[in-house]
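Protocol step 4 of 5: obtain the predicted structure for the target chain.
Materials: sequence only (see below). No template structures provided, no constraints applied. The aim of this step is simply to have a reference model before the mutagenesis design in step 5. Sequence pasted as it appears in the construct record:
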Amino acid sequence: MPSIHNLGLHLDADFHSKVILSVIVLLAVWLIRLLILRLVWKSTTNHKVRYRWKRALSYAAPACLFLFVALVWINAFRHVSTFLGLLSAGIAIALKDLLENMAGWLFIVIRKPFAVGDRVQIGDDRGDIIDIRLFQFTILEIGNRIDAEQSTGRIIHIPNGRIFTMPQANYDQGFRYIWNEVRVRLTFDSNWQHAREILLEVLNRYGGDVVPAAEQGLDEASKMYYVHYQHLTPIVYIALMEDGITLTGRYLCEPRRIRSTESAIWEDLLTAYATHADIRWAYPTRRLV
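Step 4 output (structure tokens):
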């Protein structure tokens, strides 16, 4: 049976020297990383460039540290390969979730379902990607308590492993525009034809200018996905409801401009309809008899 001495686990002079050398390597890697970050911070004020350098070093520094320390200690463990094999199997079972998150990180890095700056929805969580790490990615939440998908100010940390089990939506990859709708409800005796013309004119004012860029984006997206739209220009649909006539205006919009364009559209509609006596809004009423 191998003795403790043969396993190389005794605390002799060689062991102490390896510990000291490992500490020196740790300090050296940490100081080099700190020096590079300071040089980057002094050379640029671009937040995106700074973030990329910081993320790259957060991966490179641990990898270099592991490599150098492994070179220091490799001789000490040359006789314990079987022990390390059993140990690694036990660690794999105990750290299943961590390994799943690491696999998710590799998937994100290689397949790039999203990148920093993209607006995404993972399951019920929506937001802008602000950080991607080895075990989790971070989003700045939108929607939820706030209308029109604006920021709530909350930061959500999501384990990387969720990309294997949750549906994902990316607002920025492929086709970079989304459809938004404005619903107008009028009384039955309103001049709905004129109201429809006004609504379509307003929609073209705010949604028509993105059509050329959207057509170009659709051509690019069709190279990767089967994406097809018959119309990209604004359109108005008409529906007859129990309490009036509903005009639904549909137009293309950039995801981060939904609220601003919708507000501008409503402002113009309210102003335009107020000048026409034959266009009347429908709204719930009660009669007491």
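Step 4 remarks: Residues 13-43 form the longest helix (31 residues). The chain has three domains: 4-94, 111-170, 178-274.
Proceed to step 5.
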